[in-house]
Amino acid sequence: MYPVLFRIGSFEVTSFGVLLAVAALVGIWLFARELARSGLPRDAVDTAIVGVIGGLLGAKPLWVLEFMGEQPVTELLFSRGGVSWFGGLIGGVGTGVWMLRRRRVPIVRALAAATPALAVGHAIGRIGCFLVGDDYGRPSDLPWAVAFPQGLPPTEVPVHPTQLYEALALAAIAWVLIRWRRAGFLITWCLGATSFSLARRDSPSSSSESMHDYSDRSPWRKSFP
Questions:
Q1: Is the backbone of residue 11 left (phi > 0), alpha (psi -120 to 50) or beta?
Q2: Running DSSP on this structure, what letter comes out for residue 216?
């Protein structure tokens, strides 16, 4: 585990934060390439930048709202753990679609071009989750099971590294989506949405919460550090 790469004074630079930035940059680059291949205006890549900002603005506040009362709000806002997957999805897609409408870019075609980038970015983010020990799976005695003594929450018991399972699945999904782009814009977008859902549902565990009694927490939460 490498939860903290280095510190600048009291400020911690986490491995997840760095990989989140890498995921955004790679996703924007891939989106720009897919826009060009789809015959869409290249400057529509601005919608991806707006979407990244919207995703970040939606992800943290929703998580803070869900856990408000457990810790001071300031500690939740600046904690290493805690980003709502649903908040990021709503904020990112919502602001992206808003910008597409303003630019008068065909929404379905643009979303189809964005789908491979979303898969790649998500895969990189899941590697970040592995490095900080968040969102792992159920206990396992398989040779590649991993313990996360500094995880979120910590565990000394070897568990399924579901973060890596999902990263591999998402990378495969991205490859298929790029290869099948010619099948049609709507088909590509629908295939991507369905594949993302299956990749998450079929993991050996939905989250690290399977090892703990978190029944009082929101069923809509998907936490990332």
A1: beta
A2: T
Dihedral pair phi/psi, residue 7, rounded to 5°: -125, 145
Task: Pinpoint the alpha helices (H) of 104-222.
Answer: 107-132, 162-179, 185-201
C-alpha 146/C-alpha 191 separation (Å) is 32
- Domain membership flag for residue 57: yes
Count H helices and E strands in the chain, helices first.
7, 4
> Does 214 map to a domain?
no
Helix (H, G, I), strand (E, B) or coil at 5: strand
Residue 183 lies in a domain: yes
Per the structure, the count of domains in the chain is: 1
pLDDT band with cut points at 50, 70 and 90 for residue 16 = confident
| DSSP 8-state assignment for residue 140 | -
Q: What would you measure as the largest C-alpha separation in the chain, in angstroms?
A: 53
CA distances from 36 to 61, 109, 114, 209 (A): 34, 12, 12, 42
| Domain ranges, residue 153 | 10-203
**Using one digit for the tens of pLDDT, what is the confidence trace for 157-189?**
999 998 899 899 888 888 888 777 655 554 545
The answer to whether residue 222 sits within a structural domain is: no
